[in-house]
Design goal:
Blueprint lengths: L1 H21 L19 H24 L2 H30 L12 H27 L17 E3 L9 E2 L1 H7 L8 E5 L2 E5 L3 E5 L5 E5 L20 E12 L2 E11 L6 E2 L3 H6 L2 E3 L6 E4 H13 L5 H14 L8 H21 L13 E10 L4 E2 L19 H13 L9 E2 L2 E2 L14 E3 L1 E7 L4 E7 L6 H13 L1 E7 L2 H14 L10 E4 L1 H4 L4 H7 L18
Parallel strand pairs: 7-11, 12-19, 19-20
Antiparallel strand pairs: 1-2, 1-3, 3-4, 5-6, 7-8, 8-9, 10-11, 12-17, 13-16, 14-15, 17-18
Helix pairs in contact: 1-3
Organism: Dissostichus mawsoni (Antarctic cod)
Protein name: CxC3 like cysteine cluster domain-containing protein
Pfam families: CxC3, KDZ
């Protein structure tokens, strides 16, 4: 319709232009000079006026009978209307006749073509997949793949590589006496039913398969000799335990090897279990965790930090139910065991001189260290937990006693001053000389950390009051011992640095801190005054390069 309107408008302009060229131009009338006439007779004047009116009426009637300009305009309107309909029809025919070319490799990517082809193939194969899935649920009656004599009553997909997928009742007990972690399925009436390793299938007198309980021992090798006797030793089940793997929970028994002559016996100890990658949840070894469940949980927490421990254990319980096994997994026991496992891994890495809180790129000569706090990492007083000392005390977060001693030392040498913490029109509550402890029932109010330009965590401490200047001063003192730092970045450097110089006058041991260069974070500098941004801002510091000073926020 838009194209049709443009076409009609163009033809109207052509018609008007043609009318303008065919009609002769009428020259403008010349104005006659006014001249005074002598007074005439009134009778003659009225006669001449009547004659002029008669001539004008006659000419008007003749014009109405034939007006070439009017007739030509009507003809042009009819001609334009007809041409508009013609062009509209031509436009419809053109749009109908145009064929849209197929997409070429230049307009559609090869990836999009492959995806389209894959969708078409999957749509075609969907009915076949559904029918094949239904057919796989029905199992035909087969002979035992091991003895080839009895009728198979057990199917084990874990034994497929050994070409023993279907087993009879006798062969199943012999094959899975040691392979207790295989997920088996019982064949009943042509269908499969998952069964736990503590369940066996026997055939009754009528030839019908029946379920019965059996004892499964943890597959831990026993010593070849436990005494000097030559008599045969016996291996019997000992106490019942639970083993948690990445496939869920298993109820098994620990083995016990005894000699009937010398009354000597052997039972697996903690070192024997750790040798075969079983982590005990307690010293009594009532629950064991396979190493794979801890490593999988650790990798999952790294890739998906929002996943909770409860959700992970619910997934393990669901896998147990799918395999025919029952039993819940204690979340508190799992957490304690996982922490102990991680601590042992840390001690091994520490012996190999692997340091996690040291940046390999800029140590020991660091260009800049950024320090900032966050008061959202708080903890309520009623949630303190047990009185047990932390296993990582002083590793990353400084000891609370050391921080409290340093804060008291600074406050003892502090002179009263203006603690307005105002720079220009902005008021920063992120830094002040003194701050009272929160009136709420909060034990720890936040956390303060120091990181390098590459985002490596270097040192941290717990807040027990607001973000006072003594907290970053403690971290600055700690970093001066570990590395040669050039710039010290903060959000309120313009207030902190004069405070540091004032404290260093009374505490000479803090004078090395003043040798660092102050650095106001680039983003926070925009909220300071222009004079402050020029003097302290990171973009104005020689040698800072592209250092931002916002690495804690990042």
């Amino acid at each position: 319709m838009h194209m049709a309107a443009l076409i009609s408008e163009a033809y109207l302009h052509e018609a008007r232009a043609a009318m303008a060229t065919e009609t002769p131009a009428i020259p403008p009338k010349k104005k006659r000079k006014s001249r005074k006439r002598p007074l005439s007779n009134p009778v003659d004047t009225r006669r001449r006026e009547r004659q002029r009116e008669t001539q004008r009426s006659a000419s008007a009637s003749q014009d109405r009978r034939y007006d070439p300009v009017h007739e030509e305009g009507l003809e042009l309107e009819h001609q334009d209307f007809g041409s508009l309909e013609t062009h509209l029809q031509e436009l419809r025919d053109t749009l109908t006749a145009v064929q849209v070319p197929e997409a070429t490799d230049g307009t559609v990517s090869a990836w999009a073509q492959r995806q389209l082809l894959t969708d078409v193939r999957m749509k075609t194969a969907r009915p076949m997949l559904f029918n094949a899935n239904l057919s796989a649920e029905r199992i035909a009656i087969q002979k035992c793949h091991r003895c080839c004599a009895e009728e198979a009553v057990i199917r084990c997909l874990d034994c497929v590589p050994l070409d023993m997928e279907f087993l009879c009742a006798t062969c199943d007990m012999e094959a899975h006496k040691r392979n207790i972690f295989h997920d088996r399925e019982a064949v009943f009436n042509g269908f499969l039913e998952p069964i736990p390793p503590t369940t066996a299938v026997v055939v009754d007198e009528n030839g019908q398969p029946q379920f019965c309980e059996q004892i499964c021992q943890l597959p831990v090798p026993t010593p070849r000799s436990i005494c000097e006797c030559s008599d045969d030793v016996t291996v019997t089940p000992w106490k019942h335990i639970s083993v948690v793997t990445i496939n869920g929970r298993y109820n098994v028994c620990l083995p016990r090897k005894s000699c009937p002559s010398s009354a000597a016996e052997w039972t697996p100890e903690v070192k024997d279990l750790l040798l075969y990658r079983y982590w005990p949840a307690s010293t009594s070894c009532q629950t064991l965790y396979k190493y794979d469940v801890f490593t999988s949980f650790e990798h999952m927490k790294v890739t998906a930090p929002a996943m909770s421990r409860q959700a992970f254990l619910k997934m393990l319980e669901h896998r147990s139910v799918q395999a025919g096994r029952t039993g819940s997994i204690c979340a508190d026991t799992f957490q304690r065991s996982f922490f102990e496992f991680c601590f042992c891994q840390y001690k091994q890495e520490d012996m190999c001189q692997v340091h996690h809180f040291v940046c390999p790129a800029c140590s020991p000569d660091m260009l800049a260290v950024c320090c900032d706090g966050n008061r959202k990492h708080y903890r309520f007083s009623k949630s303190k937990g047990t009185e047990e000392p932390p296993i990582y005390e002083g590793l990353f977060l400084a000891k609370d006693e050391e921080v409290a001693t340093f804060v008291d030392l600074v406050r003892g040498n502090m002179k009263s001053g203006n603690d307005s913490a105002v720079c220009g029109t902005a008021k920063f509550t992120a830094g002040r000389e003194m701050s009272k402890k929160s009136g709420a029932q909060i034990d720890e109010e936040g956390i303060q950390v120091a990181v390098c330009r590459h985002g490596f965590l270097l040192r941290g401490l717990n807040h027990f009051r607001g973000e006072i200047y003594a907290y970053p001063m403690f971290l600055q003192k700690e970093m001066s011992k570990k590395a040669n730092v050039d710039f010290f970045c903060m959000d309120v450097t313009c207030r902190y640095w004069p405070y540091l110089n004032k404290i260093a006058e009374g505490l000479p041991e803090l004078l090395p801190l003043t040798e660092m260069r102050p650095f106001l974070s680039v983003m926070h500098a925009k909220a300071h005054t222009a004079k402050c941004e020029v003097r302290w801002g990171g973009r104005s510091q020689d040698g800072a390069g592209n250092t931002v000073g916002e690495e804690v926020e990042q």
